[in-house]
Each structure stands twice: as structure tokens, then as C-alpha cells.
Amino acid sequence: MRLKTAIWVAGYLRRCQGEGVFGAVTRRGAEEAGAVFVKLALMDGTAMLFVPAPQTAYDDSRPVERVFVASPPQATDERTIDARLVKEVGFDPDIWIVEIENKAGRHFLDLAKK
């Protein structure tokens, strides 16, 4: 059974803040099962976007957990990331957007290893 999105987001933000990384919810989505998008602002005008991984990234032998992939895989102009998020909201208004800020690029998400 997967944690409700609101609980997962609260725990993720607590983890970030416990490590000294600022984070905030910039869009609140569906409490129960909204998809989570994490924007990592690198504080130099660039950002990275972490999106829910495709189902193929999940390992059936482990308990269900949230898996993220960087999309695109490298830092890009922050305005490009913001424009992508606007499109995502237009496609699915139930998504959550969490923004964290860290010059070193720390995000505390376990990336899918493929």
C-alpha cells in the first residue's frame, strides 16, 4: 500500500529541512494519490525537474515506493522548467509541485537505476 501523497510530501519536506535544504509546496494536488513533481532550483537561474518514473522503473520484489527520474537529465533554464510544470498542470490538475533550493543539487530522491 502506498502512502497518501500529502503524507509523503510532508515527510519529504521534513527530510529536506532536516538536512538544511529549503523546500516548499508550490502546488497542492490530490491528497490521496496525486503525482508529485519536484523542482530543484540550483540558485543560479537553472533548475532540474524530477518526475514520477514510468512503471518499468518499479521493482516488483520491493514494496511500492515513489521513484523519480530527472527530466531532462541535466540542469536547464529555470523558466523552461516552470513552463513545463504549467503544461503538466494543464494535463493533470491533481499534481503536486514541490520546490527545493540547493546550490549543491542535493534533493534526497532515490533515482531509478536503469
Protein described:
The protein is of the alpha+beta class and 114 residues long. The chain has one domain: 3-Layer(aba) Sandwich (hypothetical protein tt1805), CATH 3.40.1530.20. The protein contains 2 helices and 6 strands; from the N terminus they run αβββββαβ. It has helices at 5-18, 78-91; strands at residues 22-27, 36-41, 46-52, 68-70, 76-77, 96-101. Strands 1, 2, 3, 4, 5 and 6 form a 6-stranded mixed beta sheet that branches. A hairpin with a 4-residue loop joins β2 and β3 (46-52). The chain is globular and about 35 Å long. The mean pLDDT is 89.
Based on the model shown, name its key terms.
single chain; 114 residues; alpha+beta; hypothetical protein tt1805; six-stranded mixed beta sheet
Residue share in helices? 10-25%
Beta-strand residue percentage? 25-35%
Low-confidence stretches: none
CATH architecture: 3-Layer(aba) Sandwich
Biggest sheet character: 6 strands, mixed
Number of helical segments with 4 or more residues = 2
Mean pLDDT figure: 89
In the CATH hierarchy, what is the superfamily? Answer: Protein of unknown function (DUF1491)
CATH topology: hypothetical protein tt1805
* Radius of gyration from the alpha-carbon trace, in angstroms: 14 Å
**Mind telling me the CATH class?**
Alpha Beta
N- to C-terminal distance: 24 Å
Number of strands: 6
Tell me the structural class.
alpha+beta
The 3D shape can be described as globular
Q: What order do the helices and strands follow?
A: HEEEEEHE
Number of domains: 1
